[in-house]
Amino acid sequence: MQQIFSFIIKNSNRLLFLLLLGISLSLAIQSHSFHRSKIISSANFLSGGVYERINSMEEYLHLKEQNDQLALENANLKSLLFKTKDSAEIPNLDSLKGVLPKDIIVSKVIHNSFNVYENFLTLNSGAKSGVKPDMGVINSLGIVGIIDNVSANYSTVISILNTKSQINAKIKNSDHFGTLNWDGKNTGFVQLIDVPRLASIKKGDTIVTGGQSVIFPENIGIGTIDKIFIPSDKNHYYTINVKLFNDMTNLGHVYIIKSENSEEIKNLENQGKNE
Amino acid sequence: MNSTILVNIFRFVLLLALQILVFNNMNFGGYISAFPYILFIILYPVNGNKANLLIASFFLGLIMDLFSNSGGVHATACVLLAHLRPYFFKFSFGLSYEYQTVKLNDVLTPERFTFILLAVSTHHITLFLLESFQITFILDVLLRTVLSALFTILTCIILIYLIKPNKR
Questions:
Q1: What is the rounded distance in angstroms from the CA atom of residue B57 to the CA atom of residue B54?
Q2: Is there a contact between A118 and B130 if contact means CB atoms under 8 Å apart?
Q3: How many CB pairs under 8 A join A and B?
Q4: Cβ-Cβ contacts under 8 Å for A78 (sequence gap 6 or more)
C-alpha cells in the first residue's frame, strides 16, 4: 500500500500529464466524429458573449456593405412581389424580428472561421428564439451551413467550408444531384461530387440545393460551375468545382430556416429502417 | 514569489485576450496564422511548479478550443508542450539548466532561439495534425506548420521584447 502511495507521489507530475493528455486527446478526437462533444463549442455563455461584444464593435465597419446587400435583396423581393396578382397584400410582418417568424429566424453571424479544415460560425440567436439543431442557415446570396449546437442565446453552425459537411445539391433545372462537400483548400470553392456522367452540364451552370434534403428547401442558390473533371478513382461520376455565390469570409445577417415537415419525414424514414 | 504568480496570471489573461481578439482574426493566404498565446508556457518560470504549469496549460488550451470550436486540439498541444518543456530546456541550455537561472525574456541568444523554435514547432505540428486528422492532408499540414511556426516565432520574439520587464 505504502509503495503504491509513494509511486503516486513520486510520479505525480507524470500521472497528471497523462491524465490531462488523455482528457484533451479524447476531446480532440471526439470533435472529429459525427457525435461531436456538446461541451466544447463556442455556443456558450463565455465565448458567445465575448464574440457578441467584439462583433458589436466591428459591425460598424461593414454597415455600408450590409446596407447595399440588404437593399439589393429588397429590390429582388419587390420585383417578385410585383409579379403576383395583388401586390398590395403584403405578408404578415413581425416588425421586431423581420419576416414571418414562424418559418424564418433572422440572426447575425458574430464569429466566423474559415482558416481550418472544420470551420464553424457562431450566431447570436439560440434556443430562446426557437433555433434547433439541424436547421438550415442561408443568407440573401445562398446557403451558409447547418445549425450544430444550440445554447440559450447562441448557436454554432457547421459552415459549408467544413470537410465534414455534406449537403444534397443538384444542377438547376435538372434532377441530377450530388453531394456537396469541401476539400479544405480554397474558401471560394466547394466540390459537388458523385454527379452522374449522364448529366449534361457545362461551365457556368448554376448549382442549387436539392429536394432530397429535409434541411434546406429546394432551389436555394449555392454557386456556379467552375470546373468539371472526372476523378481517377471514380470513373462514372463527375466532380464539379463550384464557385460560391457567397463570400464565406464576409458574412453578416443570415436566416435560419425552420423546416416544418422535417420531423415527419425523419419519423417516416426511421420507421422504414426499423422494419 | 507572490509577484511571480500575479505576473503569470496577468500573462495568461493578456495573451489569451490578445490571441482571441487579434491573432485569431489574422490569416494570410489560408496557411499562415500565429499562435503567440503559447508564450505563457514558454515564459513560465524555469523552476516553477510543474503540476501548476500542466494544469494552467490545459485550461489555456481548453479556453482556446472553446473559442475556436476545435474540441480539445489546442489543449492537447499545450499539455504536450508543457510536459516536454524541461527536455527542451535541457537540449538548448545544456544539462545544468536547473542550477543557473535561465531567463527567457531577455536579449535573444542562439540558446533562447533554439528553445523557442523547438517549443513552437512541437506545439504547431501537434495542433495542425490533430486539426486536420486526415492523412491526405499531410503535405498541407507540414506546409502550414512551417509557415505558421515562422510567423509565431517572429510574433513571440517581438512580444518578448515588448513585455520585457524594465528592471534587470
A1: 5
A2: no
A3: 109
A4: none
Answer whether B69 sits within 8 Å of A25, measured CB to CB.
no
CB contact under 8 A, B71 and A117: no
Helix-then-strand count for chain B, H and E: 6, 0
Cα(B37)–Cα(B152) distance, rounded to whole angstroms? Answer: 9
In a domain, B168, yes or no: no
Contact B54 A17 (CB under 8 A): yes
CATH superfamily of A45-161: Rod shape-determining protein MreC, domain 1 (2.40.10.340)
**Nearest C-alpha of chain A: how many angstroms from B82?**
9
* Total tally of structural domains belonging to chain B: 1
Residue B57, phi then psi, degrees to nearest 5: -65, -40
> What CATH number did the domain enclosing B49 receive?
1.10.1760
Structure confidence by residue, pLDDT tens digits, A9-34: 888 888 889 999 999 888 888 877 76
Choose among B65, B79, B82: nearest Cβ to A40: B65
CA A182/CA A169 separation, integer angstroms: 13
CATH architecture, range A167-244: Beta Barrel (2.40)
Say whether the ipTM exceeds 0.85. Answer: no
